[in-house]
Amino acid sequence: MQRSWVEVSPESHFPIQNLPLGVGRIDAGSPRLVTRIGDQVLDCESLRELGLLGEAFVRPLVDLTSVNRQEARELRHRLSELLDTENSELNRLPDLSTFVCSVDRVEMQLPCRIPAFVDFYSGIHHASNVGRMFRPDMPPLLPNYRYLPVGYNGRASTVVVSGSQINRPSGQFKRADSDVPVFGPTQELDYELEVGFFLAEGNGAGKPISVNDAESHMQGLVLVNDWSARDFQRWEYQPLGPFLAKSFATSASPWVVSLDALEPFRVAGVQEPPPLPHLAGRRPSNFDIELEVALKTPRMSQPETIARSNVKFLYWSFAQQLAHQTSNGTRVEPGELYGSGTISGPDPGSFGSLLEASWRGSRPVVLSETGEKRTFLEDGDEVIFTGYAQGIGYRIGFGELRGQVRA
Ligand code: MN
């Protein structure tokens, strides 16, 4: 197994096999493309300026869209060389501090300006649970669900990076005992456990991206929290889908993990009936990545894990999502973010939203440290997502995605 001269613990999400890309400000300097190994951050732009990346990189590496998919692959390969235990190009230099520093000194930002955010609904257990709760007299899945990845065009302007506080939104909702709505702070604030992919490359207008080519357009994956106001959602979502219930905030983790790093964790999904030919890929396109949700209320001393799920529970893969989105010839651009939809597993301990975990408020989640109960989020609550793929002796992970609710 490849190792680095930078010390990395076996539990770290960031061994030499990962090398994700992100954008950080080191000591409050200007934003630049960085990678992470263990608890160290490596400044790709400084490496480039000093000629250590070779001649392939002529443009400044300022964000994720500074490199296309092929360049990102070459960059990761070169970083892997420089960090390898056998390589001394970097660690023989008198002063490493120009391009390596502790993660504590780096303020991570979103990896790029996000021109568009799309949110799918590809977690079949979540979709089934929501169907049972919101439409109890009908089959849990609508007839289209197993034929296309249901999604909607979301709000890119309110995507924020991990650590950003989430303001409780106001909006219209209708209480069960009333015929008319009121306007006020949401009473049913929730999280949604998702992953998302960043687009590396767009298409020409009118050019669908085929399902077999789709992954070559993706820069990699992040964790996504698609914060939701369930009371607004219930009142507004028919007939055109979610609007203000979702557009007030979406959080993303800062490290973009490449599909190359996740290749060993590729698994086949089960789809019945088989998808139509334009969505039927040649090879497995799901991934076995464990996910966790933890909650910390202001009274708790540390977060408590309240759900464990897995990316493999997605019914539609990332490749199928992108193929579907572009199948009508819509234009897509580098830097776009695509959310998967809430990823719940089959059991209550694996549900990826409080809506499901508390079954619409009917069975509150009890936090063991304080005995506090939650049906939905309260002010001061902090939600923490983590996710990683477990290899033999190493992990490929995302780190954390945190967000705290405030009034
Ligand atoms: Mn969502």
Describe the fold and architecture:
The chain is of the alpha+beta class. It folds into two domains: 21-109, Fumarylacetoacetase, N-terminal domain (SH3 type barrels), CATH 2.30.30; 117-406, Alpha-Beta Complex (Fumarylacetoacetate hydrolase, domain 2), CATH 3.90.850. The chain has helices at 44-49, 69-83, 124-134, 230-236, 259-262, 318-326, 354-357; strands at 21-26, 32-37, 40-43, 100-102, 106-109, 117-120, 151-153, 159-161, 165-167, 170-173, 182-185, 189-190, 193-199, 218-225, 228-229, 250-252, 266-267, 286-287, 290-296, 304-310, 337-339, 365-366, 373-374, 382-390, 395-406. The strands form seven sheets. The chain has a seven-stranded mixed sheet, covered by helices on one side. A five-stranded antiparallel sheet has the order 4-3-2-1-5. A five-stranded mixed sheet has the order 9-25-24-19-20, with no helix packed on it. A hairpin with a 6-residue loop joins strand 22 (365-366) and strand 23. The longest helix is centred in the first third of the chain and has 15 residues, at 69-83. 46% of the residues are buried. Manganese (II) ion (MN) binds at residues 119, 192, 194, 226, 339, 341-342.
In terms of DSSP E residues, the strand content is 25-35%
Q: What is the domain total for the residues?
A: 2
Q: In whole angstroms, how far apart are the ends?
A: 48 Å
Q: CATH architecture of the largest domain, please?
A: Alpha-Beta Complex
